[in-house]
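A.,

Following up on our hallway conversation. Structure tokens first:
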């Protein structure tokens, strides 16, 4: 994160305030071209979502550089990992972090014994896949859960990425301090000046707070700002690259009604068509720095 030291002065020059939407200077052109080149080689089903997820612009905005140590929260099957692994290169390190295992039973129905068994072996399976995605034998990949992160990761990370991963942590905070644990561990793992990149399904501020607890998949911008600043992070900037103003949530609607999940219980054909036309969710994209 070599360019971050100059960010504050750049933002002042650009006139960006805490709640403004502004772009940071691009990473070096060669790095952005490298991201684009990697993204363009991915399977068609992966590239079909680039219009909504904007991975090249998002990772460039976060300032991720080859050789960085990056912690990716809830990487799942590796949608972003498939870009990050080859991009970080032989000097890079990618660390996947899953939710604490004891959080999964709180989801209810889909947390079947078979599902839970797969979560137990996920760290080993994801690590093996990440090594293959990198295409480079010198690349280092490893994976943990929030409850198994080793002490030797303290002060090692250049960046921690929460990409659509915070709503469930907030949703179950009262049952196990899961959000608190995640943010505390993030602060511990980061180097001084390291960054936190957040992409999160977001609901507008004028909607009821009860709709934005995470249980419907959404959080509010104001909640994210307060959570991170209370935890000792400085706000750097935000971008509107992942916003979708067509996603205007109404009472009883959850994020999974939209593509790619398209799970809308009891929806009429007209409603399903409406949700498909909206596309993927509205998302805020925020950048914070460890003090």
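Then the amino acids I'd put at each of the 291 positions:
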């Amino acid at each position: 994160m070599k360019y971050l030291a100059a960010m504050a002065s750049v933002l002042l020059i650009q006139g960006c305030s805490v709640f403004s939407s502004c772009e940071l200077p691009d990473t070096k052109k060669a790095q952005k071209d490298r991201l684009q080149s990697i993204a363009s080689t991915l399977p068609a089903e992966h590239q079909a979502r680039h219009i909504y997820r904007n991975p090249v612009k998002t990772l460039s905005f976060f300032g991720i550089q080859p050789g960085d140590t990056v912690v990716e929260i809830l990487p799942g099957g590796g949608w972003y990992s498939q870009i990050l692994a080859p991009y970080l290169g032989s000097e890079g390190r990618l660390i996947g972090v899953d939710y604490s295992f004891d959080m999964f039973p709180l989801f209810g129905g889909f947390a079947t014994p078979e599902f839970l068994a797969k979560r137990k072996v996920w760290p080993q399976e994801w690590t093996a896949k990440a090594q293959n995605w990198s295409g480079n034998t010198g690349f280092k990949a490893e994976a943990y859960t929030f409850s198994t992160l080793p002490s030797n990761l303290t002060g090692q990370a250049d960046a921690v990425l929460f990409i659509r991963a915070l709503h469930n942590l907030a949703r179950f905070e009262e049952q196990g301090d899961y959000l608190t644990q995640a943010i505390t561990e993030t602060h511990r793992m980061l180097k001084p000046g390291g960054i936190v990149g957040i992409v999160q399904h977001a609901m507008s501020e004028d909607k009821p707070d009860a709709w934005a607890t995470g249980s419907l998949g959404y959080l509010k911008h104001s909640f994210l700002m307060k959570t991170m600043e209370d935890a000792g992070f400085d706000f750097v900037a935000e971008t509107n690259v992942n916003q979708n103003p067509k996603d205007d949530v109404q009472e009883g609607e959850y994020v999974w009604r939209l593509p790619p999940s398209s799970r809308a219980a009891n929806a009429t054909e007209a409603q399903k068509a409406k949700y498909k036309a909206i596309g993927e969710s509205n998302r805020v994209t925020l950048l914070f720095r460890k003090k």
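The chain has one domain: 2-251+282-290. Curious whether your intuition agrees with the design.

B.
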